[in-house]
């Protein structure tokens, strides 16, 4: 007895009922592991503080409410600013990365020259070193440039570590653009720059958009160490550091912290749901087939 | 491909901004780390060269323990990511209704700001009020509350679990993509020959995916070795230093105690390990490409 059988299903994809049951059990266990912090976090955000700090543990909130989603703005008045800061930092970092990476990827995709392999390998090697390893000289560099405690202290180093994967992704995309286009443009007497600007860039736009999205998400999700170390001004803090504001002198306001986390997550979730088709393709495109 | 002189100049011009940026923000700090590791740099204005003294100072039993701990932490984290990621990819590859939705649902830990996910785990690990301890007590698996982050042993594994949680989605999606690149007719031929599902996985999927598995474990190894946020937010290296990895240790010395020189020496040791991983990675991927072409 096989389920979901219709004549189009290949024989190989037909399962017996217990196989289906096993697959679903496996999938639910897997997704439970990945989503349980969010489920628990969401339930916590609905619970009143008194119920949170009571034993025995209760999974479901009793008389839960969205009160924390309103009171959080009063507990930490700067929270909207932190979200804005996170967006600003990610956006500027993405713009910088694109300005650097779009020409560089084109060079890697279309030109053969001595030392290219080495330069490409050097770019990829950058992703090995996390900011944590280079923190000391970066701190001194930021201090020398007078960038400590400004947005730039978080943007400039953050962008550097987003470059390697962006180059890898966009290079793969641009290699698929037929070289005949370049030859045709050359025949018509177009200059190299004109070809790049008027022929390649318009065609590469979908790839550039994917790289922009992936870079933005990377920048949005990894704002911690530079913000922790290079900035001490409250007004410039991004979301992850701003969440520490819910850690009071005595207790942590956990329900508001979780509510605030969900407000901060929201943009990322919206992006996933609208752009998931690009995302799955984009995140793996550069990886599997080189 | 034609590579005229003007084309070459143009290519280098395209690369120049990116190269310059990386030179200033990554290469120069890397060089500075090596230089500082031979100095007694701190908050003071004057900095003296002290030769190998920083290295002599750090190579003691505590530091060797930290190195050992970092490797154990990294090993188990990468291993679990690969195993769980592979299970996830197999499950999400099965032709059952709803799999597109399930695929999207794997992404949140990867996409959501890391710090937020870690805060949520911090609450889950809470002994008095957290979910894990609460459920364990409910089902009678433990007598009293378990404060996971308060004891070295449980904190060590708790940080690993959180790191695995953040790493699994990427591994899963990557493995899934590699799995879908395997030609379908191989499976159909094996099915015609009466090979069971397990045999097909063992004899077709695993061998054909080995390049992807090796590549991913190397990339994951490098990323995990560099992991900072998780341990810092959950335990700051505690209790009593039992979750202190090399990165955390370096941060504490360099930024916490402002001993830039000593911190730089520790960073150099990390860089040496990372370079070895990187060389291994490039050699392995090159060999994989060579066998693919043959």
| Contiguous uncertain segments of 5+ residues of chain B | none
**Low-confidence runs of chain A (pLDDT<50, min 5 residues)?**
286-290
Structural class of chain A: mainly alpha
What's the end-to-end separation of chain B, in Å? 24 Å
Count of discrete domains of chain B: 1
CATH fold name of chain B: MetI-like fold
CATH class membership of chain B = Mainly Alpha
Q: How many β-strands of chain B, per DSSP?
A: 0
Order of SSEs of chain B: HHHHHHHHHHHHH
Model description:
The complex is a heterodimer of chains A (290) and B (294). Chain A has 290 residues and is mainly alpha-helical. Chain A folds into 2 domains: 11-65, no CATH class; 71-288, MetI-like (MetI-like fold). Chain A has helices at 17-46, 49-52, 67-75, 79-110, 116-126, 135-144, 152-160, 163-175, 180-187, 192-221, 225-230, 239-242, 254-288. In chain A, α3 packs across α13, α8 packs parallel to α13 (254-288) and α10 runs antiparallel to α13 (254-288). With 294 residues, chain B is mostly helical. Chain B has one domain (57-293): MetI-like fold (Orthogonal Bundle). Chain B is 74% helix and 0% strand. Chain B is built from 13 helices and no strands. Chain B is globular and about 75 Å long. The two termini of chain B are 24 Å apart. Chains A and B meet through α1, α4, α5, α6 and α7 of A and α1, α3, α4, α5 and α6 of B.
